[in-house]
Amino acid sequence: MPNVRRQSTLNATVVTAGIALHSGQHTRLVMRPAPVGVGLVFIRSDIDDRDNHIQVKPDAVTGVKNCTTLSNAAGVTVATIEHLLAALAASGIDNLYIELDGEELPALDGSAEPFLKLIEQVGIKSQAAPRRYVKILQAVEVKNGDSIARIEPCKCLELDVTIDFEDNAIGRQRVEITPNVREFRERLASARTFARLHEVAALQQAGLSKGGSLENAVIVDGAKVLNPEGLRFADEFVRHKALDLLGDLYLGGPILGRVTTVKGGHSLNHDLLMALYANRHAWKFISLKEPLRDQKHEQLSA
Fold first, then answer.
1. In this structure, are strands 255-262 and 158-164 parallel, antiparallel, or unpaired?
2. Is 266 a known active-site residue?
3. CB 155 within 8 A of CB 292
């Protein structure tokens, strides 16, 4: 059983760059190792006239429309963070400086796989401090119309995600996964973000999806998938929703609990986290003295 008791960071600095999905800007991303206890911190390297550090935490969320956006007290923002956070969550990375020279992360291919490959490129460094988990003690549920999200006690993190779209290319799909790094790599990491054709024009009119293309998103029109290469999985859509959920949940740190969502999204994911942390009887922090015997978690070798 790999050691999951300690905090971890990257072994070395990694760099990538690309077009941001919504802003259309070219942005450069640098991930640097960070000391014990720092957590995940975004640094806007293009801003030097005010505080440019943004701590990854649930109450830093200021936007959940089409992506997750964080802000600090100085009004500095960073958007579309969920794919990177999903890769960090699956890999078990606790401490990291994430430098960005723009307001939005590069979309790359629309999935989390490029971020995971960067992590695998340099490996993970175990640190001399215990890892803090959020153990779920009682169920918490939130609803918004027919959308439901629920978290309940479990000895590891489990996701159960259902989507239901009227588009025949998507339809109703469900995925259940214990998102350790192996399962994440094989089943979720390469699942791309998606949009319906009639939504794309509306998004662009609203100033979003300026950088969206068939190279970084799956586009559907009714029963058709417009990408020439087709889908990477028959159920790629729900797999990407599970990827988004994993990233959004990691805003609150590593969780030991089972999370079920039906027709969810960034807004519902955030509502669930806020409802959970508002109920002080529903969770507690723990550090693992021994690895969980039935926890299907592995870390990348350092």
1. parallel
2. yes
3. yes
What mean pLDDT, rounded, does the chain reach?
92
Q: Is the pLDDT of residue 290 over 80?
A: no
Alpha carbon distance 197, 292 (integer Å): 45
Rounded to whole angstroms, the Cα distance separating 183 from 135 reads: 21
**Residue 289: Cβ within 10 Å count:** 7
Measured torsion, CA atoms of residues 88, 217, 25, 198, in degrees rounded to the nearest 10: -130
In single-letter form, the type of residue at position 110 comes to G
**Token representation of residue 30:** 């640098």
Six-digit token pair at 90? 């699956």
How far is the C-alpha of 232 from the C-alpha of 274, rounded, in Å? 33
Measuring CA to CA, which residue among 138, 176, 174, 135 is closest to residue 156? 135
In the sheet that holds 77-79, the strands lie side by side as 61-63, 69-71, 77-79
User: To which H or E segment does residue 149 belong?
Assistant: strand 147-153
Q: How many CB atoms lie within 10 A of CB 95?
A: 20
Render 77-115 in DSSP notation, one character per residue.
EEE--HHHHHHHHHHT---EEEEESSSB-B-TTSSSHHH
DSSP sequence for 187-230 = IITTPPPEEEHHHHHHHHHTT--TT--TTTSEEEETTEE-STT-
Whether this model's pTM surpasses 0.85? yes
Alpha-carbon distance of 142 to 73, in angstroms, equals 28
- Strands 14-19, 6-10: pairing is unpaired
Instruction: In whole angstroms, give the CA distance from residue 217 to residue 222.
Output: 16
Among candidate residues 266, 270, 281, 297, the one labeled active-site is: 266
Tell me the pLDDT tens digit for each residue of 220-251.
Answer: 999 999 999 999 999 999 999 999 999 999 99
What is the number of other CB atoms lying within 10 angstroms of the CB of residue 222? 12
